[in-house]
Amino acid sequence: MTTPVVSIAYHSGFGHTAVLAEAVRAGAADAGAEVHLIKVDEITDEQWETLDRSDAIVFGSPTYMGTASGAFHVFAEGTSGRWFTRAWQDKLAAGFTNSASKSGDKLHTLQFFQTLAAQHGMTWVNLGLLPGWNSSTGSENDLNRLGFFAGAAAQSNNDQGPEGVHKADIATAEHLGRRVTQTALVFARGRSAA
To answer: Which residues form a coiled coil (predicted)?
Structure first.
């Protein structure tokens, strides 16, 4: 069985989303993937080729004004050539985001990622966790403490730097990286059996 290639295509405005990207990377590597971190606002031709040969692409961006950052939108529009040739057809996709508010309309960013993936013919990998911190016995330290299903969502105070990213949100992003890699392994076994 070959090692799955997972690429994390992300933008980080102030460093918080970069912390999450690193957590996704750690989770994917822990599950056995070859992992590449790609900053979409600095993407090179070689990194575009890495995305093309990836088994899974995890999209990440802060949520600004209810959607992904402008830099991520530029990247998304830049994928149109791949859309036209179906270069990413049947790859896996997933996503993560961060904002200062607990909701902050982060779901819209995750849905933007899902739509981008769907247009490319990719298969979306959800978070696969029940919501945490939604009962009297729950805790802000629970995995998926903000209760998102589509992907990993984090909340970071707007008066703190990247060191303020909540440990539960980091652990949730690590979970997403592991889940994407495990799903890629299942898909690879299925393809080889077919």
So the answer is: none
